[in-house]
Amino acid sequence: MLADIASSLRAWLASELPPGTGIGFDPLGVVAGIERRPSGAGLVNVFLYAVSEDLDGLAGTRVRVVDQEGRVAGTVSPIRTYQLSFLVTAWAADTNEELELLGAVIGAHAERDSLSGDHLRGGLVHIDTALPMRLGWAPTAHAAEVWSAIGTSMRTSLVLTVSAPALPQRVRQVAPPVRTRELDVHDLTRSGDTAPTAVSRRRRQRPTTAEH
Questions:
Q1: 3-state DSSP call for residue 101?
Q2: Is 2 helix (H, G, I), strand (E, B) or coil?
Q3: Topology classification of domain 2-173
Q4: Is-contact 141 132, C-beta < 8 A?
């Protein structure tokens, strides 16, 4: 799921940023060594620094899977949603160009605040809902704490949080539906009885039936 989110973010940003802009997902310690890039060939780096589970609305029981005939074929674990927080930084020829790239990210989010449609990649193409994105908010540590943790000087950055589901992979099979039911009738009279009652005679005469 994480790789699919990264690929989806790359597709979204590639459609919004100026041509020639690189898009990376490297740790901040790696890109911090970049001094300056050529003019017009900036880099927008989207570093995943926190993952937290969204417990609101989590189903308490397993979810049924229905086949093409409408029958329950199995069950899967409840779909869990996670908040993925990214630190977005720009690395370009000068500070002004970096701010322009970050401004382009803000403008792209203002136009579309969710991942959907042709931007989704991997297993996410099969979901029937958009993935909300929030800019400037994260349920976990603040950006300043992230910079402090990696021991790198703080610079202008954006926090982008994507809400994404973890789709269950394992289906627990259920017992197949009953398709045939056989009914059998036994003589309930005692062996010593010489004159069976009318009810017992009717029971002996009732045939075995099969229900399909």
A1: helix
A2: helix
A3: STM4215-like (3.30.2000)
A4: no
Spell out the domain ranges in the chain. Answer: 2-173, 181-211
Q: Give the residue among 80, 55, 67, 60 at the shortest CA–CA distance from 171.
A: 67
Give the number of other Cβ atoms within 10 Å of residue 13's Cβ: 20
pLDDT in tens, the chain (212 residues): 899 999 999 999 999 999 999 999 998 888 877 777 888 889 999 999 999 988 775 555 555 555 666 665 555 567 788 999 999 999 999 999 999 999 999 999 999 999 998 899 998 888 878 999 999 988 876 767 777 777 777 889 999 999 988 766 555 555 555 566 666 666 666 555 555 555 444 444 444 445 55
Q: Identify the CA nearest to 18 among candidates 89, 85, 120, 98.
A: 98
Helix axes 2-14, 95-111, angle to 10 degrees: 100
Q: Which two tokens stand for residue 209?
A: 């039936």
Query: How many angstroms separate the CA atoms of 83 and 54, rounded?
Result: 6
